[in-house]
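User: My collaborator sent over this chain with a note saying "see what the structure looks like." That's all I know about it. Can you take a look?
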Amino acid sequence: MPRYYFDLKDGNGTTPDEEGLDLRDLDAAQDEAARSLGGMAHDAVATLSGSGAEQMEIEVRDDAGPVMTVRFSFAISRNRVS
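Assistant: Without extra context I'll predict from the sequence alone. Here is the result:
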C-alpha cells in the first residue's frame, strides 16, 4: 500500500507532513485531502472576525514526489457588523 503525505499550505505558511498515511490508491488520497481541507476551512471561517478571505491548499506527495494539489478558497462579506 503506498504512503501519501499531506503538506498543508495557508496564509501562515507550509506545514509539512512528516508521517503520512498508508492509503490504497490516489483516489483515497484525494478523499483524505478533501476531508482535511474541509476541516481547515471550517476552522478558518470560525476564527475570522468580520469580512475576510482565505486560500488554502494541500499538496499530496508520495515517496517519489508530488502527485496532486487540492486548493480551496473562500471569502466572507458581511452586510452588517455585530
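A starting point for your reply to your collaborator: Residues 26-47 form the longest helix (22 residues).
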